[in-house]
Design a protein that fits this description.
coiled coil, elongated, Arc Repressor Mutant, subunit A, about 210 residues, ATP-binding protein, WH-like_DNA-bd_sf, alpha+beta, about 25% strand, ATP binding, 2 domains, 7 helices, four-stranded antiparallel sheet, single chain, four-stranded mixed sheet, Methyltransferase, Cobalt-precorrin-4 Transmethylase, Domain 2
């Protein structure tokens, strides 16, 4: 019980979301997909946005969640349920591990499936660039360490130029296309950089 209070005090984040109840299976599917595609996370059903516990009927909520997984997630997301009895009512803890079979897509409307990742406390629609990178093997720790100064260089370039394209980064930071893509996707997923992919030529800015 104490553990759940402490978790709620942390507030919503890239790995935690509160839901009063599950009323829209399509919307909760986007949240579950975003956790599975990123670092995993938990949804606390029976907790309002401000952290107030209101409690739920866990069987009803699990029914809605299972429906969301089967009808609105492709491939279906793996979840674990844990019921926590609190003085204010029952909270259903929905645990979504990071997926080994990403990217997962969520159904937005008939025959329209889209990818989502978790950035800060929001489920953000991915671009094709991010979706492709999710299928890449994760970089080793030694490689991640080597990337640190390159990440800093990219952030410095964005501070200076405000907005840059992939080609700009390749030229200014002297990076291969694959390395530049990987670095930018990593920074987008971390919430440092924002991708604007609705333009004729996609570009990046600081978040």
């Amino acid at each position: 019980m104490q553990e759940l209070y402490l978790l709620i005090l942390q507030g919503e984040s890239d790995t935690l979301e509160f839901k009063k109840t599950i009323t829209h299976p399509d919307r909760i599917a986007r949240t579950m997909v975003s956790f599975a595609n990123t670092r995993g996370g938990q949804i606390l059903v029976g907790v309002q946005d401000d952290g107030t516990i209101c409690g739920v009927d866990p069987d009803e909520e699990m029914y809605s969640l299972d429906k969301a997984i089967q009808l609105f997630c492709d491939p279906p997301v793996r979840v674990f349920y844990k019921e926590v009895e609190m003085e204010e009512g029952t909270v259903l803890k929905v645990i979504i591990p990071e997926s080994a079979t990403k990217p997962h897509l969520a159904r937005v409307k008939e025959n329209d499936w889209r990818g989502y990742v978790r950035v800060k406390d929001e489920s953000v629609q991915t671009s094709k660039l991010v979706e492709k990178s999710l299928t890449l093997e994760p970089a080793s720790e030694s490689l991640e360490e080597k990337l640190d100064h390159q990440q800093e260089r990219i952030l410095e370039l964005l501070k200076k130029y405000r907005k840059l394209t992939l080609k700009d980064f390749m030229h200014l930071a002297n990076l291969s296309r694959q390395r530049a893509k990987r670095l930018l996707v990593y920074l987008v997923l971390q919430g440092h950089v924002r991708l604007h992919d609705k333009e004729k030529e996609p570009f990046y800015t600081l978040s």
